[in-house]
Design goal:
Number of domains of chain A: 4
Protein name (chain B): Histidine-containing phosphotransfer protein
Helix content of chain B: over 70%
Keywords (chain B): Acetylation, Cytokinin signaling pathway, Cytoplasm, Nucleus, Phosphoprotein, Two-component regulatory system
Subcellular location (chain B): Cytoplasm, Cytosol; Nucleus
Helix content of chain A: 40-55%
Structural class of chain A: alpha/beta
Strand order of the largest sheet of chain A: 3-2-1-6-5-4
Shape of chain B: elongated
Distance between the termini of chain A: 174 Å
Largest interface: A-B, 26 and 27 residues
Strand content of chain A: 5-15%
CATH superfamily of the largest domain in chain A: Histidine kinase-like ATPase, C-terminal domain
InterPro entries (chain B): AHP1-5/YPD1, HPT_dom_sf, Sig_transdc_His_kin_Hpt_dom
GO molecular function (chain B): histidine phosphotransfer kinase activity; protein histidine kinase binding
CATH topology of the largest domain in chain A: Heat Shock Protein 90
Number of helices of chain B: 6
Number of strands of chain A: 19
Oligomer: heterodimer
Largest sheet of chain B: none
Chain lengths: 740, 155
Amino acid sequence: MESCNCIDPQVPADDLLMKYQYISDFFIALAYFSIPLELIYFVKKSAVFPYRWVLVQFGAFIVLCGATHLINLWTFRIHSRTVAVVMTTAKVLTAVVSCATALMLVHIIPDLLSVKTRELFLKNKAAELDREMGLIRTQEETGRHVRMLTHEIRSTLDRHTILKTTLVELGRTLALEECALWMPTRTGLELQLSYTLRQQNPVGYTVPIHLPVINQVFSSNRAVKISPNCPVARLRPYAGKYMPGAVVAVRVPLLHLSNFQIYDWPEVSTRSYALMVLMLPSDSARQWHVHELELVEVVADQVAVALSHAAILEESMRARDQLMEQNVALDLARREAETAIRARNDFLAVMNHEMRTPMHAVIALSSLLQETDLTAEQRLMVETILKSSNLLATLINDVLDLSRLEDGSLQLEATTFNLHSLFREVLNLIKPVASVKKLSLTSHIASDLPMYAIGDEKRLMQTILNVVGNAVKFSKEGCISISAFVAKPESFRDARIPDFLPVLSDNHFYLRVQVKDSGSGINPQDIPKIFTKFAQNQSLTTRNPAGSGLGLAICRRFVNLMEGHIWVESEGIGKGCTVTFIVKLGIPDRSNEFKLPFVPKVPGNHGSTNFAGLKVLVTDDNGVSRTVTKGLLMHLGCDVTTASSSEECLRVVSLEHEVVFMDVCAGLDGYELAIRIHEKFTKHQDRPLIVALTGNTKKVTKENCMRVGMDGLILKPVSVDKMRGVLSELLERRVLFETV
Amino acid sequence: MDVGQMQRQWIDYTKSLFLEGFLDGQFLQLQQLQDENNPDFVVEVVSLFFEDSERLLKDLTFALDQNGVDFKKVDAHVHQLKGSSSSIGAQRVKNACIAFRNFCEEQNTDACLRCLQQVKQEYCIVKNKLETMFRLEQQIVAAGGSIPTELSFIG
């Protein structure tokens, strides 16, 4: 080449502009290269920058711009093709990157602008949170005060303590000058100053309940600021020289008003309130804060709840005391009932063990006495003793029967008996008593009345004796008539027996007995009472104080057991009385063997009946009892053999013995012996009669004796007269089971 | 001492036995059964009672001394004694036996031992009194009198 491309040191005036362009391009390039470095530096220091890719694009753009300006340094003179290619490439790249960057910035510039907005938002939020934190801290303090106050208020269930504690704790917590509680008076028309924090002797101050300030407070459930000069706030002259402190008042609901005993208020239909007044200290700039007002409101609610609990507790304690009193009364009643039951049981035990036994002795002794030589007068007296003793024994049995009737354990004992003989016996018993009172006694036994009947002979006789006995007892003059006949179907439609609908059949009939007297009579109004146990007609009691009033009650029970009915008719006091009853009896089948209860018969001539030569075998392992029974039978003329054991009895017993007496007290030995005697004489028709002797009065004993084929059962003690009757009956009927 | 005075003494003594409850009506029956055909009936029966009672009380004492008491056997003995005392009219002995049997049923050994002592005591008392009465009777007979038959105090 003829000349180089180096820049000449010395340039003409036109070259000065060129020089300036060189310098500018150089600095432009320098700036373009440094900007990316700055961006990278500050972005790294920043924790978060969301547009890293844009940064890369922008950096590339800047660097390429710098490159183009740097390359311009070689384009002011004629340059080689290489320089032109490089320049073209650089500009093309710059164009591409700059356009891309411009497009990208269209998207991110709005976001970048909004950062400022968010900054403002966050600043406002921080301020708001700061205020809220202050509120929270304040509320926390208030809550702590509330919990402390609530704990103090609710730690007692005494109303006076509740109210006093409230004032003291509020005064302390809120640094009050005074706190007062106004309660409604009895009339409900005034509020009375009941409690104060500092002032002494507050009682006596009252204000009308309808003051505007009070209405204002009562109509709101919030704490209300009131004037320090209103009547409920001006409790005393102010000691300060300046204005008094701020005052608020709040209502306190009073629940369960009717249960409050202290003030003895009448029942008020609408809800009632007490008024609580709180005063800040005088001469201070303090004002009530919102959280303090809230505290006052919460405390008022807690006081209301605590008072309600106190009222409920008082009510429950009163109920508890009442229940305790009731329990004491019930326990006393229960003990009295138990005492009554125990007394009745003791009485029955005495009747059974201590009265029945002596009666047996009296009967036995009287029976023995009859055997001695007596004048006619003496014999009559002894016979009277016997009959009276038997009647008394019957009365003792009545009481025991009544007890069993009441608990339903008494069972009728159906046997075949002579119905006509029964009525004759009743008349024979009643005639002496009637003759003493000079009463005439008539009886009519219908001819169609069956001779024999099946039923409980003993109870039927007892019923008739009771009814006739009452007629005799309550008659001072006149006559008594007894009628007995078969009840006809038409008589069952009688209005006096509305519930009595008997069913007729061929194997039973209804016996109707009517007893009419001309005695003292009964007030018709009292008739329903006379069947009550131990009750007697009031007007009659004074005239005839004697008598237990027991008989008719037993009669009705017996009649009911015999599927019958009993009723009384009387036209009034002094006009006599008619007692009628109907009972169901069976008609015996003639093919049935009669099993009659033992009834000792006193023969007309005491010496005429004897058992001379009658061979009797007595088996008893008790030597003393055996000897006594033997003596008794020998006294009656029997030819007695004794055996001390079952084996001996079986060895000794023979066809010559007509009767075998054996003891069945001890276990099953006697029953076994009876079976074996039967086996021994099974081929003979005239085997001995087997009779049990026992002191055991249980019903099961009789059933056991019948089951093993015994012919009789005799209860100890046995008197001479009783044994004579037993032997007569046995030899005549071949069977005799004494009823227990 | 003359016969009349001895007879009154016998009557008073016998009366007291009934009033104090040692004897009951059954004893009177024994006396009624005594006649010319059976002149010593009462003494025979009472002697039997003494023999039986002595044996039974000895058996009871032995039975209750065992480590394992056989209450069935004890009950059987007491039942025998009750029957004997009842047959001659020894009322208090009989009542003691009734209580004894109740405790046998309960199998109460200590109570049975106490009852045994009670029965022994009642038996000894009635035995002494009956022997005294019989001695009085013998004195009356030896003096040529007869045993009184009137028992009008009973009533």
